TrEMBL record:
Sites marked Could be important to modulate the pK values of the two catalytic cysteine residues: H168, E217
Compartments (UniProt record): Cytoplasm
Name of the molecule in the record: Diaminopimelate epimerase
Active-site residues from the entry: C76, C226
UniProt entry keywords in alphabetical sequence: Amino-acid biosynthesis, Cytoplasm, Isomerase, Lysine biosynthesis
EC number, UniProt record: 5.1.1.7
Length: 288
């Protein structure tokens, strides 16, 4: 018998996810196969992935994120802002929240509302990490991964890597166009140097307070925004002396504000919008 699942679609700067409230009820599907099917932009609803909201004993809720290809990630910055909005708008949480994620307990705060709904959210994303073990890279696990190199089709890329719970590789320089990032990003994502794969970002530092960037996300491809990617980029840029500890970051879907408090060990804060788009139901055969 097919089962019907209710979802709500939200996005942060165009990084869109389908949200499933799995705090009660069930049985729930194999989320990985389900995410692959429903995220498809032609044969499904269409999204960069799904967010599953589960009960937590230590926080308001537990957030799980599955990319459009069905792989599970540790964290999602834009998804977390939108989850905070989803909880606040329904009266399930206040302005200051605690959410359990694969990257630990994180703290969103609603900083602007309109008509009783959250419009702008600031998230304590926790501290960045720079060691190879944090990024899941081959090589000395204790060594920092700030100056790595990969070669694709004879072109050498210098990568500055950081983790926000999930792994990121930044290519600093003139910003690549979409086709170029898709070509090289997809190859770097799956380079043997990264057995867990990696999110890849083309980053142009405009001045010490401004960055422009574009994302190739692990398991999702080109996206309009990547919150953990923006946080990892600020961490890498400031740690290597390219920017100050506060930056305004222009991504394809809009602007995020990023601030690193007490570097190098303190947390990174991201501030930006979240929007609810619509709700619906999706029928899923139970024999897949
Ligand atoms: N878009 C997200 C990150 C989603 C997960 C990522 N693709 C991964 O596999 O780590 C964000 O806003 O952080």
């Amino acid at each position: 018998m097919p089962r019907t699942y209710h979802f709500t679609k939200l996005h942060g700067l165009g990084n869109d996810y389908l949200y499933f409230d799995a705090r009660e009820g069930g049985p729930w599907p194999d989320w990985s196969a389900f995410a692959r099917a429903i995220s498809d932009r032609h044969f499904g609803v269409g999204a960069d992935g799904i967010i599953v909201i589960e009960p937590s004993t230590t926080a308001e809720v537990r957030m799980r994120i599955f990319n459009a290809d069905g792989s599970e990630s540790e964290m999602c910055g834009n998804g977390l802002r939108a989850l905070a909005k989803w909880l606040y708008d329904r009266g399930w949480a206040g302005t200051r929240q605690l959410i359990e994620t694969g990257a630990g307990l994180l703290e969103p705060e609603i900083v602007e509302t309109e008509g009783g709904k959250a419009t702008r959210i600031r998230v304590n994303m926790g501290p960045p990490r720079f060691r190879r073990r944090d990024i899941g890279m081959l090589g000395d696990p204790d060594a920092e991964a700030l100056d790595e190199a990969v070669t694709v089709d004879g072109r050498r890329f210098s990568l500055t890597c950081a983790s926000m719970g999930n792994p990121h590789a930044m290519i600093f320089g003139p910003m690549m166009d979409e086709a170029t990032l898709a070509h090289y990003g997809s190859r770097i994502e799956t380079d043997p140097l990264f057995p867990r794969r990696v999110n890849v970002h083309s980053v142009e530092v405009l001045d010490p307070g401004h960055i422009r960037m574009r994302h190739w996300e692990r398991g999702a491809g080109l996206t309009l925004a990547c919150g953990t990617g923006v946080a990892a980029t600020l961490a890498a840029a400031h740690y290597t002396g390219r920017t100050g500890p506060r930056v305004e970051v222009e991504v394809p879907g809009g602007i995020l504000e990023a601030e690193w408090e007490n570097p190098p060990t303190g947390p990174i804060y991201l501030t930006g919008p979240a929007v609810e788009v619509f709700s619906g139901t999706y029928e899923w055969p139970d024999d897949v």
